[in-house]
């Protein structure tokens, strides 16, 4: 079976993570993605070979100097035979290099142009790296222990989330059959992902606050707990889960969600005492068969070792494969394009 996006041709003028991740997800689904790189290659090639491979498998590459007349001519030729172009750069650079729909529609009025920026195409050129956006949108402020400093997660959540959102916008326009400009910003994506937190403030005046061990604002108990060995993530979201957990842990009382929320500190104390009697992996083994959401905290190496079905091989690289599983289709994972093969104006 061909991939569901077979026949869709996408150009990427991507830098580092957000843009390349978006188009890699599409390439994994069968789209023909051509990465447009400047002479010398896209900057993420300088990070490491594995970094570049993790974001650019299944693509072809072409080196173009988009600041030159010849580079612009070749870009126009590629646009004329493509369905979409996705770019993540500063707004001023996107416009200066002619990577908007208004600039490219003369070559193909059905081209979909997706611009990924920090604050929107009309939002200016302020620096907008992942960590900066997390700081600017409240994510860092609501993360960490109550008496500790703001905290950032250990991966690029804003870049990855924006990549997926941009891919969705790109596909929506292709399905519509119309060309046009799609504008996706890291700031807007992260604010959108704060959905119920934002709604609580906008409608009820409730600003988010931190709880110890990453505890949930509404559900109790729903957080990390220390055990006899390691930490356990326990997520009790309704009374049925609580009854099952309380029976297994030998606890009594607090039968309703309202009672547990009202007596949060008391509930957390008895749960912490009970969980200290076994290890995190021991509790995981006991609770999961009961259908209770629980997991021992693992490091990434352990998580990867325990999930071989999620891993793929692309040339010489072992990578995490596409999270989208489609019946009858498995991507043919190919390594990222080599820069020496991406001679100016030619694809590799």
UniProtKB/TrEMBL annotation:
GO MF term list: transferase activity
Keywords linked to the UniProt accession: Transferase
Renumbered residue ranges of the record's region Disordered: 329-348
UniProt key word Transferase: yes
The keyword Cell wall biogenesis/degradation is annotated on this UniProt entry: no
Pfam families: CoA_transf_3
Superkingdom in the source lineage: Bacteria
Family annotation (SUPFAM superfamilies): CoA-transferase family III (CaiB/BaiF) (SSF89796)
Xref: InterPro entries: CoA-transferase_III, CoA-Trfase_fam_III, CoA-Trfase_III_dom3_sf, CoA-Trfase_III_dom_1_sf
Protein name: CoA transferase
Source lineage: Bacteria, Bacillati, Actinomycetota, Actinomycetes, Mycobacteriales
């Amino acid at each position: 079976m061909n991939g569901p996006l077979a026949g869709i041709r996408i150009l990427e003028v991507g830098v580092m993570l957000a843009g390349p991740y978006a188009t890699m997800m599409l390439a994994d689904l069968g789209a023909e993605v051509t990465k447009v790189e400047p002479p010398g290659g896209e900057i993420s090639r300088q990070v490491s070979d594995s970094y570049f491979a993790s974001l650019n498998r299944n693509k072809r590459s072409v080196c173009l100097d988009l600041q030159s007349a010849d580079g612009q001519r070749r870009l126009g030729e590629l646009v004329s035979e493509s369905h979409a172009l996705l770019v993540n750069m500063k707004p001023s650079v996107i416009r200066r290099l002619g990577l908007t729909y208004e600039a490219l529609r003369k070559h193909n009025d059905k081209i979909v142009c997706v611009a990924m920026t920090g604050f929107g195409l009309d939002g200016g050129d302020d620096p907008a790296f992942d960590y900066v956006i997390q700081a600017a949108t409240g994510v860092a402020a609501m993360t960490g222990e109550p008496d500790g400093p703001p905290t950032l997660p250990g991966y690029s959540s804003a870049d990855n989330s924006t990549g997926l959102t941009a891919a969705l916008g790109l596909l929506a326009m292709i399905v519509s059959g119309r060309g046009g400009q799609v504008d996706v910003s890291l700031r807007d994506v992260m604010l959108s992902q704060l959905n119920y937190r934002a709604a609580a403030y906008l409608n009820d005046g409730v600003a988010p606050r931190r709880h110890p061990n990453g505890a949930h604002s509404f559900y109790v108990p729903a957080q990390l707990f220390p055990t006899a060995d390691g930490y356990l993530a326990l997520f009790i979201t309704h009374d049925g889960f609580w009854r099952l957990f309380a029976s297994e842990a030998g606890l009594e009382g607090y039968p309703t969600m309202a009672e547990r929320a009202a007596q949060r500190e008391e509930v957390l104390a008895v749960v912490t005492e009970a969980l200290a009697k076994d290890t995190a992996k021991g509790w995981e083994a006991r609770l999961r068969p009961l259908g209770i959401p629980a997991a021992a905290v693992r490091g990434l190496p352990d998580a990867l070792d325990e999930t071989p079905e999620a891993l793929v091989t692309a040339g010489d690289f072992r990578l995490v494969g596409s999270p989208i599983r489609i019946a009858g289709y498995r991507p043919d994972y190919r390594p990222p394009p080599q820069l020496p093969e991406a001679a100016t104006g030619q694809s590799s």
